[in-house]
Automatic annotation (TrEMBL):
Superkingdom of origin organism: Bacteria
Protein's UniProt name: Dipeptidyl aminopeptidase
Residues annotated as domain DUF3887: 25-113
Any GO molecular function: carboxylic ester hydrolase activity
Species: Mesotoga prima MesG1.Ag.4.2
InterPro entries, per database record: AB_hydrolase_Est10, AB_hydrolase_fold, DUF3887, Hydrolase_4
Residue span(s) of domain Serine aminopeptidase S33: 185-281
SUPFAM superfamilies: alpha/beta-Hydrolases
Length: 426
């Protein structure tokens, strides 16, 4: 056993060397929170081991749970410097309060100091969330080689309820659609469950099986659609579910109409911050906007990239040609899934909701949807002022990528909009 621990400590040292001591501090804290006290103990320096034994760990975390309830999540992290050492401060939300975990890593890649400090952190959890009104259960969606871990958030004391399946934007995203310190999908799930709507969210296939998928040709079918249909199947087997809605964010909203067209078990769809422009055009415009923020003009590398993307946009590249992390064929496949044309054929309710400070899916996209679909009596529109791509409030007219890495909440207006619309059509 000691040999195993020593190998583990060696691996932790490599992690610290390659990725920095913050990763090591986070790993140590996660071991403690999961009750892996012996592994956490082996990560400590000689001095720390003498002061903080496994028995001390067990006692301290038992007392934390007795006083503050179950651990919920880390909502932000900051650093400070004390006597030449960097202190990593992890702000954590528990059921009945807030805790700061202070971790110091020495220059040998060992945990030298660990301090648990109760603190007051107003605003750590959004006001519209009441964790006493719902439960969460870990489940698995799908069968075979691409089974995905998922979680279903279920309102308490309700016999029948609608269920929403959240569909990710582009990228290898976890069930919470984590970006920086923010977890927008979790806030949406908890906000809706507080009001009586169940939510199913899952780790995206590219997040769980990224290395395996990198050796195959990318496809929107395998990246998104197949797993959403598996989630629909899982939801349809729950006796308490009265109706199933798909809520797609960005790319997820682009493909949601196609999925609804194929699967009659879908009772309604929601497009959240979904562009009406073609995907490559969105990427080109985003690159130009970000470049204008940095230098006021497009740099040489950005110009070369946008020129190459323009060639792909015009369909002049072979399907197998590399384009960003995919291929030209991947984007050609997406172009065939026009959300506007598909929605024209749908008879189920459709909600299109957009923040007017979003630089990725813009107000112009929203207007294009309205101009094309305003005569459809089953299509509803909602524009939310001052919100970015993740429906979080920003200062100024248009958001920037830096906003994504500021700790904020999904705005309650989105939760109210989604709930009110779902309640009508459940």
């Amino acid at each position: 056993m000691k040999r195993i621990f020593s190998i583990g400590a060696f691996i932790f040292l490599i992690i610290a060397t390659l990725f920095g001591s913050e990763v090591l501090a986070d790993r140590y804290l996660q071991l403690l929170l999961r009750g892996n006290y012996h592994l956490a103990y082996e990560m400590q320096s000689v001095r720390a081991r003498a002061l903080y034994s496994v028995d001390n760990m067990v006692q301290e975390f038992q007392q934390l749970e007795e006083e503050y309830g179950s651990y919920l999540f880390i909502f932000s992290t900051e650093t400070s410097v004390l006597r030449g050492y960097t202190v990593y401060i992890f702000h954590a939300q528990f059921e009945r309060g807030f805790i700061d975990f202070n971790v110091v890593v020495d220059d040998q890649g060992k945990i030298d100091t660990f301090v648990v400090q109760p603190t007051s952190q107003p605003g750590a959890i959004a006001e519209y969330i009441d964790t006493s009104k719902f439960d969460e259960f870990e489940i698995t969606i799908g069968e075979g080689r691409y089974r995905l871990p998922a979680v279903i958030t279920v309102p308490k004391e309700i016999d029948r309820y609608p269920l929403v399946i959240l569909i990710h934007d582009s990228g290898a995203l976890d069930r919470d659609s984590t970006i920086g310190p923010n977890k927008p999908f979790r806030q949406i799930a908890w906000g809706l469950a507080t009001q009586g709507v169940a939510v199913l969210r899952y780790d995206k296939r590219t997040f769980v099986f990224g290395e395996r998928l990198s050796q195959t040709s990318p496809s929107i079918e395998t990246e998104v659609i197949e797993d959403v249909i598996k989630a629909i199947t899982a939801a349809s087997r729950i006796p308490s579910v009265s109706s199933i809605f798909l809520a797609g964010h960005g790319l997820g909203g682009r493909v949601a109409p196609t999925i609804a067209m194929r699967d009659s078990r879908v009772d309604g769809i929601i497009l959240m911050a979904t562009p009406s422009r073609r995907e490559l055009q969105v990427i080109i415009d985003k690159q130009k906007y970000i470049s204008s923020l940095n230098k006021g003009e497009i740099g040489q590398q950005t110009q070369l990239l946008t020129d190459y993307l323009q060639i792909a946009l015009e369909g002049k590249l072979p399907p197998g040609a590399p384009v960003l992390a995919a291929t030209a064929g991947y984007y050609y496949e997406l172009d065939k899934m026009s959300p506007i044309e598909t929605i024209r054929e749908l008879e189920i309710p459709v909600l299109i909701v957009q923040g007017d400070a979003d630089f990725e899916s813009t107000v112009q996209d929203y207007i294009m949807f309205m101009n094309a679909l305003w005569t459809k009596i089953n299509v509803y529109f909602q524009l939310l002022p001052g919100l970015d791509h993740y429906f979080m409030p920003v200062e100024g007219e248009i958001s920037t990528p830096d906003n994504y890495y500021e700790f904020r909440h999904v705005d309650g207006r989105l939760i109210d909009t989604l709930f009110s619309w779902i309640y009508i059509f459940d």
